[in-house]
Amino acid sequence: MTAPNEKEPKSAGVVGKSISRSDGVAKVLGTARYVDDLPALPGEIHGATVRSPVPRGRIRSVRFDPSFDWSDVIVVQASDVPVNVVALIADDQPVLAAKQVNHAYEPIVLLACADRRKLTLAKLAVHLDIEPLVPVLDVATALEGSNVVWTAPAGFGEPNTNVVKRYVLTKGEVDVDAELARCAHVLSGAYSTHHQEQLYIEPQGVLSWWDDDGVHLVGSMQCPFYVHKALVKAFALEPHQVDVAQAVTGGGFGGKEEYPSILAIHAALLSRKSGRPVRMIYDRTEDIEATTKRHPCLCEITTGCDADGTLRVLKMRVVMDAGAYVTLTPVVLSRGLLHAAGTYRWPNVFMEAIAVATNTPPNGAFRGFGAPQTIWAIERHMDALAAYLGTDPMVLKRKNVLVEGDTTATGQLLRTSVSSLECLDKGSSASRYVERRAEIEKENRRRAQRGERKRLGIGASIFMHGAGFTGSGERVLQGKAAVDLLPGGRLRIRTASTDIGQGTETVFRQIASDACGVAVEDIDFAVPSTKVVPNSGPTVASRTVMVVGSVVEACAREIGDRVKTEQVEQGGTFAEAADRLLVKEGSVTALHQYEPPPFVHWDDEAYKGDAYPCFAWMCDVAEVEVDLDTFETDVKKLYLIGDVGKAIHPTMCKGQLEGGSLQAMGWALFEEVVWKDGLIQNPRMTNYIIPTALDAPVFDTTLVECPFPYGPGGGAKGIGELPMDGGAPAIAAAVEHATGIAVHHLPLTPERLFEASLGRLSPTSTFHPAA
Amino acid sequence: MTIADLSSMLFDRVRDLSALCTRVGELSDEGIPFVLLAGGTDWMVEQEMREPLASDVFPTVIDVSQMGELRGIRLDGDILRIGAATRYLEMRRHPAVLERAPLLERMARDVGAIQIQARGTLGGNIATGSPAADGVAALAAFDALVVVKSRRGERHIPLSELQTGYKTSTRAPDEIIVAIEIYLPSRNATWFWRKVGTRKAQAISKVALAAIAEVQGGQVVRCGLGMASVAPVTALLPRTRELFLSTRLDAIDDFMIDKCVESDIQPITDVRSTGPYRLHVAKAVVREFARSLGAA
User: Fold this and answer.
1) d(CA A457, CA B153)
2) Exposed (0-12), middle (13-18) or buried (19+): which is B196, by Cβ within 10 Å?
3) Are strands A214-219 and A242-246 parallel, antiparallel or unpaired?
4) Domains in chain A, please, with CATH?
5) pLDDT by residue (tens digit) across B134-189?
6) How confident is the model at residue A115 (pLDDT cuts 50, 70, 90)?
7) Is the distance from CB of A721 to CB of A643 less than 8 angstroms?
8) What is the rounded average pLDDT of the residues A570-598?
9) How far is CA B27 from CA A29, A550, B30, B147, in A?
10) Which of A6, A571, A647, B171 is most buried per CB count within 10 Å?
């Protein structure tokens, strides 16, 4: 690793060095301006949202208290929306509810006022008369289907049911039940996961105004072109009439993938009606209540294996809770399904994945995007199978782990950059897994004899994450990026990939620098604004570095080559040659489009083929200490072995693995959205508990570099989501080792471990804490 | 739900304690709502969470956080007097607390974040009356006296007689909490603090136990217990305390402890935890305390 301020010779390779972050100084000094920090525009007013207090009901009337002075309050209702649809996949979500509400906190009325205090009083002066309807609040009831709460838009879902999406994935023998009957051992289990709130540090917020050109919007977001598309649709505008720019953004984790679209429309509606700029900033409670969360998921698994533990059959059903509208659920469900077989070799597979609608706020994108849910299930099942076979889980996993030349559940041939075995072995050796297991068991016996009440445990998980859009997604998307040559031999990178704290700006500049020989200090990063940057696709799916980064690399290489050619022909420095070229050509820009590797073929109909161009692989080993009186779990150490292809910026790369693992730990141990009658009981940071620095384990992180030939910077793979996938099962395995309690349902809160210790919580007895 | 109200409220400071008594007395007489602002760590949160107020009911806010007579820590023989507006951080650093009442130092470390400790006060903790208050649990273990003052004069309320129910107390509305007085246990007394929250810090207690005991020849001769978050008030566990005081340590077993704790509290299920878990943990931490004394 290089010290951040070490002076590198100009144009020396910077990929692989942990240079200073380009956004670091402004953020540390507090000069970075988030949307709430932007100076007020002339005449600017504040916007607020009146939301449904019930999970399902018919809107009888909306009454505005006649004793309230409404003269300086702007009111927007569904009838004010030109096209009352939030454009996404199924277009089933209204911008504002008109006749019916389908989840608590659904927006019904928008208000704006210059006086913030009056705005809060105005919200109280809106009286909603809603006839409650019986809601469906959990997956089991939704699947049972006697109360249908969702209307399938044309071409979506299954009519007269709550089923929003269904996929079937098969491999090998058609009759898996017959194949199961031929297996030496058959084991079944059910595994579930719960909601998770992204809890980015900066709540959602936007600022919107209109002028002769159309609508302008600045906000906290991951995907400016998603917001652009939503504004075009809702206001029936031409694309050039909509200008969306990202403000400095304080985290997203998927929570600012699709949600900013609806908030942007709300602010634009108020702005259009008032003729004034409108800023809408959610407070933490509104943000937790109204915005998307991780999809709860139930997985039922039956597996068959040979007497020696060789896996033969995987039969699995994945059920996810979409919430009240489709949003991104089909894609989340797909990614969940495509990771559900884990890192194992299965000759025969039958998997069904179903998403159902419920009367809860729509669930959406969250780091991992369905994969943490299904990897939790398969890893816990493998641990259960190991226990059933009387073998160590790591031995069973190693025996069956995918290696180069194997095919995945979708029949994808693993051609290159397959390091699952290497990660697993490095995980074992780094943690001294076998020795520690023995030492810990000895220590636990000693503690038991002395009447001590804490127990140690060690557990592991092995997992992968497919980088980039699923299947044919990248081919359809045609992500673009551009690099401009500027006077003095400087460059400007233009992409729609947003830096939301993960370091995009820095890493793109490193990639471009090495591709063209221009020092990182001489490379600018354009603010992602739809007027300025090409559509690189969204900042999601671990695709920024691997996909968009490779396009940036191609653009920078082209510019570098053109300037160097000029240099060879006419002499002078790089800067002089650049200036000559600019004089000659007026402007010099390289614009490239992403081209997936030629071998990537995906069949959407059959659900077979190359689900992803490549996978990043990882092994987690957790050491925990569990208090047998209070059932508190203290994660003492987390060994992280991650194959990232090539670490462009090793410190940030490790930061992604460690931060993602801490988020996984929070999901596993602390975080729980408490529901009552469809309403969230803990919408605050004081009672929605995430880990703090004090709860963080000691990390022992190893970056494995098994390059992906098509990745930028010498083989980088996407790793943003990877660490979210395996933390929970590793911790649960360690807790099981410490206590003997095999938990199949997240979260592993002390209360649930306590119940499980009494035998009250059987492994399959609960799912979805909605009550 | 609005911090916006703050700008409309009348913020006031008075010269000294006697002026404060007069002012509070007048406000009470006139039926004007008022708030004494010490650390503000609860009150500010409440302002953010509640519905906006109609302007005619804004309380008068009297900032007492800087009032000298309410601040400071004084050791007088075996009596430790802590001003009501003394901050947790000051308690953590005060030599008399560190030497004679380490339980208070240990408890204060677990209160919120460092920013909260730098503002929060014991007086505020008592005034807001939350049964989850770590500070009040610790004072209960010491059988502390709460010194209150009004125009009518000063009186000492034993902590055990202060709380009457969820956030209700025997303190009159015009009585100002001035200080807390603790009759310190002997220097070799055993103290115990155990907070069980959802994470290691910055979490409101699911269960917290503060306890002190003086043991002479295998017999507990002074004992105080305070438990947070298991009842509508800070739980004093009277039967458990009686067990410790009435039975030789070598004769106290887990079963006896469990029986007493079960009869002392019936904790509820709320957003933070469940009743059965709380009862289980309450018993476990009392047993841990008993073991630290050398019980069977």
Assistant:
1) 60
2) buried
3) parallel
4) 24-32+479-593 (3.30.365.10), 40-134+199-290 (3.90.1170.50), 411-470+609-749 (3.30.365.10)
5) 999 999 999 999 999 999 999 999 999 999 999 999 999 999 999 999 999 999 99
6) very high
7) no
8) 96
9) 45, 71, 5, 21
10) A647
CB–CB contact B198 A692 (8 Å): no
pLDDT in tens, B18-76: 999 999 999 999 999 999 999 999 998 888 888 777 666 788 999 999 999 999 999 99
Is A761's pLDDT higher than 50? Answer: yes
Q: What span, in angstroms and rounded, lies between the C-alpha atoms of A6 and B289?
A: 55
Interface test with B, best of A751, A755, A758, A760 (most B CBs within 10 A): A751
Shortest distance between the Cα of A662 and any Cα of chain B, in A, equals 13
A25-46 confidence digits (pLDDT tens): 999 999 999 999 999 999 999 9
- Report the C-alpha gap between B281 and A55 in whole angstroms: 35
For residue A435 the two structure tokens come to: 């020795």
Contact B1 A121 (CB under 8 A): no
The whole-number pLDDT of residue B48 equals 82
- Compute, in degrees rounded to 10, the torsion defined by CA atoms A13, A14, A16, A19: 160
Greater pLDDT, A765 or A756: A756
């100084």: which residue's tokens?
Answer: A25
Closest by CA to A702, choosing from A646, A639, A651, is A639
3-class DSSP assignment, residue A637: strand
At position A460, the amino acid (one-letter code) is A
Between these two residues, A645 and A117, which has the higher pLDDT value?
Answer: A645
* Residue with tokens 């090539």, as numbered in its chain: A646
Mutate to test the interface with A, among B57, B116, B277, B291 (most CBs of A within 10 A): B277
- Rounded to a whole number of angstroms, the CA Rg of chain B reads 20
Structure token pair of residue B58: 């804004």
d(CA B62, CA B56): 17
Residue B271 touches partner A, C-beta closer than 8 Å: yes
